[in-house]
Write a structure and sequence with these properties.
Blueprint lengths: L6 H16 L4 E4 L6 H11 L3 E6 L2 H12 L6 E4 L4 E2 L5 E5 H4 L10 E7 L10 H18 L4 E6 L3 E2 L3 E2 L1 E4 L3 E2 L6 E7 L2 H6 L5 E4 L22 H8 L5 H12 L6 E4 L3 H14 L7 E4 L5 H12 L5 E4 L14 E4 L6 H9 L10 E6 L22 E6 L6 E8 L5 E4 L7 E3 L5 E3 L7 E2 L6 E2 L16 H10 L3 E13 L6 E8 L4 E7 L3 H12 L2 H4 L8 H6 L9 E6 L4 E7 L13
Parallel strand pairs: 1-7, 1-12, 2-5, 2-6, 3-5, 6-7, 10-12, 13-18, 14-16, 14-17, 15-16, 17-18
Antiparallel strand pairs: 3-4, 8-9, 10-11, 19-20, 20-21, 22-23, 24-25, 26-27, 26-29, 27-28, 29-30
Helix pairs in contact: 1-2, 2-3, 8-9
The protein binds zinc ion (2 copies).
The site of one zinc ion has 8 residues, from loops.
Amino acid sequence: MKFQLRSYQQQAVQATIKHFRQTDESAVIVLPTGSGKSLVIAELARLARHKILVLAHVKELVEQNHAKYQSYELTAGIFSAGLKQKNLNHQVTFGSVQSVAPNLEQFNDFFSLVIIDECHRIGLSNNEQDQQNQYQQIITHLTKTNPKLKVLGLTATPYRMGLGWIYQDHYHGFSRNEQAVFKQCIYEMPLSLMIKQGYLTKPSLVDAAIAHYDFSSLCAQPSGELAEREVNTLLTKYPRVTQAIVEQIVQLAGGRQGVMIFAATTKHAQEIIDYLAQYLPDKPHSFGLILGTTPHEQRDDLIKRFKRKELKFLVNVAVLTTGFDAPHVDFIALLRPTQSVSLFQQIVGRGLRLAPDKNDCLIIDYANSGFNIFSPEVGSSKPNSDSVPVLVNCPICQFGNTFWGKVDDDGAIIEHYGRRCWGIEYGEHGEKQRCDYRFRFKECGHCGAENDIAARVCTQCDQAIIDPDQLLKNALKLKDSMVIRCSGMEWRQDTKSTTKLKVIYYDEDGASLSESFDFQYNGAIRAFNQQFGRRLGQATTPMSFETVEQVLNVTNVLIAPDFVIAKKQKHYWQIKEKIFDYHGQYRKANEL
Ligand SMILES: [Zn+2]
Ligand SMILES: [Zn+2]
């Protein structure tokens, strides 16, 4: 039999073969939901001479992947207690990690490849430690028979809040995360490209919302999730908003086939169901609710009825973000906060499958998260509500980094929060290394090396780096010390000596400190360039200044220190320290 691969599926297969010919390092392929990754699996299995194991974290996904595979008139085995099958007699076995890990004694054949589906979930179950270990146990066991076992992960979203990027390096030549589970991303097909090429339905992101929630005041836990109780408390501030939103959803759902409603909490979901009942008095069986606690049979039944379009509205709380496949969905209503572009894309992805009589998918974000499915994932949580992804080129390797930042009305970057460039450079012998250019840094007082702004020990000389908080704390205690929370600077050429540059630092109340750099001395020039020239334009356009005139031409892009510390001398205050790129517990100027 023969199946026809789309060009990107073919490319993904070729990338896999090429990668594993060169190395045994684990790899990730990023393919959006609906891209037909089962065909990629089928083709890899066809080309492989040995056995392949395809792992998933839940039995539903095992079953779904297996069924898809068999639909190409291929036969594969299932190894899942939940599906009551433990068949290892085929070249391809679809298994659930929970069933395979405790039965490793049955896996003594030579497997050439392990494919992990939804691989961003590794280490994210409730018994996080356990599942991570289970994947590891399986890999370790299979490696005993095949020391060159290959591990391939498949995912639509290679990034998770709280965990970060799941791979270390990307084939486009940049790094993402130095402690990732997977080594390399070897192929990526972005969602936006799938839509452009017509493989997915186009989303209609309309701002038709009559009312919005504002979740921006909530703080995420370290995992990136919001605390349910806080969300519930916040929602009580919007007594009528939910009602108005549900009324609008019912109205807009008129010409739609299937509506998915994403609620913020269980209580919120119940409230939505109550309003649906109120607005659909003659259709009491057209809506359903799925919670994390809904028993499996009931959940399966609800999903079946939704797929048969008996239910038109399906309300859920965070359970149908991945693995759920109902192509006819053409309206997605988000009534919950989404903290990352990836999560937003996961949710919206539920509505982008192609289906008969479906022209687009209506998407309304009632939480106003401001995400767009075409925006890139930045890789860290949004630092404040007005941040947007900005493109920052590295002045050394030219790599275009995506960082959070702020832009003015014309889209020009005012500020960015990037720390270190993610570009990859190749050494003399072709070895890969991450570009070490830093946009923000803390200079080591011992050797002068640039370190991360949160570093405690210098990466070059291993000596302790002075803690800026300690410095500030000490200075604030001393009577003969003065600390300025710098909110502005003034630059002047000395009236008497044209080589002298005077800098005045102001705090929010107008208090000031000043110092001079005399450009006829090399030492002063060096100090000036290391402090100010190096950081010009948020370190995107570093420059070595030679004259005072050159400096006075670019004062608008000179970066001010966050704090200036001075010590009282007989007749004046002498500046002892300037703290740039501050990262710590004290408030900076113009911050709340
Ligand atoms: Zn770089
Ligand atoms: Zn050092």
